[in-house]
C-alpha cells in the first residue's frame, strides 16, 4: 500500500488542545460570572429605579393633586368674589336707575312751577305784585334746578363707579379663565398614565418658559385682584348709601318746599277772595249810593224848576206892578214882599244850582270810581282765576307724590353683557 499524504498546516499537541479547552472554559465561566453580575446589578437597578419611578410618579401625582386643590380653592375664592361683585354691580345699577328716575321725576315739578309763574305773570295792574307765592315759586324753581344738578352728579359718579367695577370684573374673569385652564391642564396631567396614548417624548421639556412666575407671585396676583374688587365694592356700597341718603334728603326738601309754595298760594288765594268780596260790597254800596244820588238830583232839578217858576211869577208880578199909573206906583208892602220873595228865590235857586252841580259832580266821580272798581274787580277775579288755575295745575304734584309712595315692582337688572347674572368663563 502506498502512504497517505498529510495535510500541510500547523498542528497542536494534546497539551495545547487541553490548554485551549481550559482557556475557553475559564473565559466562558468569566463571561457567565460577568453576565450574572450584570444581571444582578440590572435586576437591582430595575428594582431601585422601579421603586424610585413609582414613588416619583406618586409624589408628582400628589403634588399635582395638591396644586389642583390650591388652584381650585383660589378659583373658588375668585368665583365668590365675582358673584359678590356681580351683586354689587346690579345693586349699583339699580341705585343709578332709581337716581335717574328721581332726576326724570323732577321735570314735572319744574314744569309745573314754571307754568304757575307764567300763569301768574298774566296778572294785570296792581294785581301784578311780588307776593309770597311768587317768592316761594321762585325758591321752588331754584331748589329743583339745584336738586337736578346734585342728582346728575350722583348719576355720573355711579356710572364711573360701574366702569371701575366692570374693570375689576374683567380682571377677575380673566384670572378665573386662567385658573380654569391651569386646573384643566393639571387635572389632565394627573389623569395621564404610562399607558395613556397621548404621552410622547418632547424636545427640551425641562426648559423654563418665558413669563413664568413664582408661587408667591401667583398667589399675590389673585389676592391683588380680589383686594381691588373688594375695594371697588366697598366704594360702591358707600356710594349707594350716600346716594340713597341724598335722594331721601332732596325729596324731603322738595316736599317741604312744595307744601310751603302751596300754602303761600292758598293764603294768597284767600286774600284775593277777601279783597274781591270787599270790592264787590263796595261796588254794591256805590251803586246804591249812585241810585240815591240820581234820585236826589232829579229831586233837586224838579225843585229848581219849581223855584224858577216861582221866581218867574215874582218877576212877572213885579214887572206888571211897575205899570201902575201916577201915585199908585207905590212901594207898598206888596212891593217889598215881592222884592224879598224874588231875592229869596234867587238865593234859593243859586243854592239849588250849586247843590245840583255838586251832586252831579259827585255822581260823575262816583261813576268814574265805580268803573275803576269794576275794572279792578275784573283784574282781581282774573288774578283769582289764574291762582286757581295754578293751584289746579299743582294737583299733578300731589298725584305724582302719591304714586311715588306706592311700592315699586323690582325688575331684574342686566349687567354690561346683557345677562341677568354674570356667568363665569371658567364654568
Automatic annotation (TrEMBL):
GO terms for cellular component: axoneme; microtubule cytoskeleton; nucleus. Residues 29-46 have a biased composition (Basic and acidic residues). Belongs to the tektin family. It comes from Mola mola (Ocean sunfish). Residues 1-52 are annotated as: Disordered. Keywords: Cell projection, Cilium, Coiled coil, Cytoplasm, Flagellum. It is found in: Cytoplasm, Cytoskeleton, Cilium axoneme. Its main location: cytoplasm. Residues 75-102, 269-303, 335-369 form a coiled coil. Pfam families: Tektin. This is Tektin. The lineage of its organism: Eukaryota, Metazoa, Chordata, Craniata, Vertebrata. GO terms for biological process: cilium assembly; cilium movement involved in cell motility. The keyword Transmembrane helix does not apply.
Amino acid at each position: 500500500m502506498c502512504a497517505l499524504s498529510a495535510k500541510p498546516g500547523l498542528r497542536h499537541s494534546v497539551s495545547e488542545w487541553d490548554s485551549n479547552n481550559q482557556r475557553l472554559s475559564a473565559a466562558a465561566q468569566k463571561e457567565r460570572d460577568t453576565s450574572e453580575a450584570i444581571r444582578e446589578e440590572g435586576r437591582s437597578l430595575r428594582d431601585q429605579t422601579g421603586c424610585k419611578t413609582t414613588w416619583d410618579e406618586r409624589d408628582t401625582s400628589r403634588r399635582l393633586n395638591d396644586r389642583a386643590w390650591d388652584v381650585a380653592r383660589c378659583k373658588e375664592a375668585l368665583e365668590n368674589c365675582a358673584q359678590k361683585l356681580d351683586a354689587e354691580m346690579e345693586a349699583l345699577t339699580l341705585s343709578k336707575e332709581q337716581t335717574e328716575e328721581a332726576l326724570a321725576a323732577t321735570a314735572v315739578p319744574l314744569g309745573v312751577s314754571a307754568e304757575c309763574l307764567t300763569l301768574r305773570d298774566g296778572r294785570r295792574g296792581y294785581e301784578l305784585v311780588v307776593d309770597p307765592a311768587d317768592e316761594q315759586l321762585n325758591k321752588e324753581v331754584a331748589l329743583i334746578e339745584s336738586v337736578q344738578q346734585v342728582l346728575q352728579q350722583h348719576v355720573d359718579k355711579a356710572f364711573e363707579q360701574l366702569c371701575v367695577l366692570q374693570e375689576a370684573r374683567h380682571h377677575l374673569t380673566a384670572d378665573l379663565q386662567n385658573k380654569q385652564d391651569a386646573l384643566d391642564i393639571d387635572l389632565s396631567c394627573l389623569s395621564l398614565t404610562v399607558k395613556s396614548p397621548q404621552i410622547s417624548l418632547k424636545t427640551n421639556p425641562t426648559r423654563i418658559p418665558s413669563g413664568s412666575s413664582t408661587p408667591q407671585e401667583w398667589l399675590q396676583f389673585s389676592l391683588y385682584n380680589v383686594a381691588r374688587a373688594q375695594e371697588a365694592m366697598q366704594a360702591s356700597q358707600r356710594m349707594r348709601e350716600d346716594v340713597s341718603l341724598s335722594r331721601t334728603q332732596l325729596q324731603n326738601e322738595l316736599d317741604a318746599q312744595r307744601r310751603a309754595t302751596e300754602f303761600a298760594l292758598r293764603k294768597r288765594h284767600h286774600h284775593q277772595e277777601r279783597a274781591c268780596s270787599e270790592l264787590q260790597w263796595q261796588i254794591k254800596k256805590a251803586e246804591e249810593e249812585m241810585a240815591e244820588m240820581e234820585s236826589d238830583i232829579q229831586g233837586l232839578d224838579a225843585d229848581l224848576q219849581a223855584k224858577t217858576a216861582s221866581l218867574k211869577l215874582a218877576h212877572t208880578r213885579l214887572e206888571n206892578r211897575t205899570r201902575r199909573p201916577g201915585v199908585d206906583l207905590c212901594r207898598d208892602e206888596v212891593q217889598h214882599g215881592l222884592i224879598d220873595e224874588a231875592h229869596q228865590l234867587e238865593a234859593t235857586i243859586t243854592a239849588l244850582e250849586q247843590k245840583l252841580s255838586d251832586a252831579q259832580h259827585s255822581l260823575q266821580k262816583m261813576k268814574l270810581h265805580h268803573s275803576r272798581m269794576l275794572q279792578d274787580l275784573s283784574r282781581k277775579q282774573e288774578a283769582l282765576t289764574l291762582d286757581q288755575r295754578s293751584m289746579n295745575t299743582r294737583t299733578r304734584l300731589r298725584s305724582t307724590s302719591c304714586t311715588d309712595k306706592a311700592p315699586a315692582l323690582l325688575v331684574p337688572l342686566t349687567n354690561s353683557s346683557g345677562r341677568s347674572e354674570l356667568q363665569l368663563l371658567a364654568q
